[in-house]
Structures are given as structure tokens and as C-alpha cells.
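Morning. Coffee machine broken again, so started the prediction first thing and wrote up yesterday's gels while waiting. Chain of 288 residues, entered below exactly as on the submission form.
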Amino acid sequence: MDENQLIIVGNGFDVNHGIPSSYAHFKTWLGNIDKELFDFLERYIDVAGDWWNDFERSLSEIDVPKLIRETSLEKRTRDPSFPPSFSHPASWRLDSVREAISMKFAEWVKTLDGVKIKKMIELPEACLYISFNYTDTLERVYGVEENRIVYIHGKASRGDELIYGHGKSQFELEYDVMKKYNLHRSDDFFTAGTYGNSESELTTHISYWQKYIQIGRYYDELRSAVMDANKVCVYGLSFSEVDFPYLQWIVEKNHDLKWRVSWHSKNDEKRIGETLRTLGAMYELFYM
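Came back before lunch.
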């Protein structure tokens, strides 16, 4: 029993246990449950290939000019309580879609908590578990007490707001849209009109999907656990760009931590190794 070990689990942990929790599974589920919402995403997310595998990042790739062109200005009256910069009907349409996705996403995750699975590994007693997942697998299957788990992005069965989304700021989104669609300031990108700033306005609404780092909410608990630990074991975390701030924070708080991290594909192994070297962490990798 290692009391000074910190355990981190990501979605690969659930997937490896046979839980259909990948975004490819979400794609299939949503297509069957809400065809209108599914078709909106298929039409307006401007990414080649099967972008569903990287669903959260792809939310930053809404085809803003296309959405504006295909949203009627008729039959909607601007809400006088909001300034003109928030008045384009495409913004309201996008807000409605974002709310619908949040509801459907939470509904889907709750179905995953009912999947029957068995233990695959032995988890040691740990000072703290950090779950990047929305499921209750650690509690339901491994018997870990809830008060030993920080659900860093929310827990679906508890009714939490689930934190998901891309990692781009408002400024980065505006720059990307201008560059991708060859727009310029002279194209009224930042010029308010009858229905606001159009492209610039919509990037503001897309930025609401940004996945904010949640350390502040659990700061004291996380800080104590990280500083007291001598080892951190990571199962099934993707080490994506939205995960990086968490990893960086942990290394900064305890640079002497020894990392033991699982990988599943060669691409995982390469990405994880590069990230840990960038952070200057001591690590070993193992296949899961």
C-alpha cells in the first residue's frame, strides 16, 4: 500500500474497461437520439475526416461565415436588453445548439454509468484520485470512496455541470477564423452593424465552449495531495492540449514526482513522452 501515490484517470481508463465512452460512440448515440442536432454539427463543423474522434477540439472549428450566411435575419427581433454586438440571429442559434449539446452530452454520459464491467487492475490506496472522466467507474467498480476523488470536470450521476470543450481563447478563435476564411478587418469583421459584429460576435459565442482549467475549485485539496505525493500513476489520459495546464501545475507544485503513465497506441506513447520531457518530469511509460 502506497499512501503517497496520486492516481489520475482519463477516458482511456473507461474505454479499456469496455465502456463505450469514446466520442465515436457519442457520434452514434447522438445520431440516433437527436438527428437535428447531429446534422447541425455535421454541416457546420469545418474539419476534414472523422472529426468526431476529437469532438471537443472540433467545437472550435465552426464554419462561422457559412453559419451567418445560412441563418435568416427574418422572424427574429433583437433583444433590446443586449447591445447590438450580441444581436445576430446566428448567435442565438449557436447558443441554442450549445445548450442542446450540454443536455445531450450529460444524458449520454449517464447511460455509461450503467454499463456492467469488472475490475481489470488493482488500484492502491492513494492520497487522492483525480478523474478527468464524467463517469463513476472508480466508485462503482473499484469501490473508491467519493471523498477521495476529485472529478475535475464534473460527475454526471451527481448532476454536476459537465466541463467540456476546446482549448482556444477568444483571440485565437478570431485569428483562426480570419486566417481560415481569408477575412480582413476591411471586411467588416470588427464593424458593428444592424446585427452586430457578425463573425467576431460568433467567435465570442464559440469561446463559451472553452474548457477552463478547474484547479481553483479544488486548489487546497489538490495542492496538499500533490505536494505530499512521491509518485503519480496515470491511466488512460490523452495528454491533449486541454490537459496540459493540469499536468504543468502538478509538475510545478512537486517537481520530484515520479510519473508512471499508460499508453495504448504508438501515437500515445510519442505524445506522452514529448509532453513529459517538455515538462521536465521523471517518468516511465507502460502499455495498457
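The longest helix spans residues 89-112. Going to sketch it on the whiteboard this afternoon.
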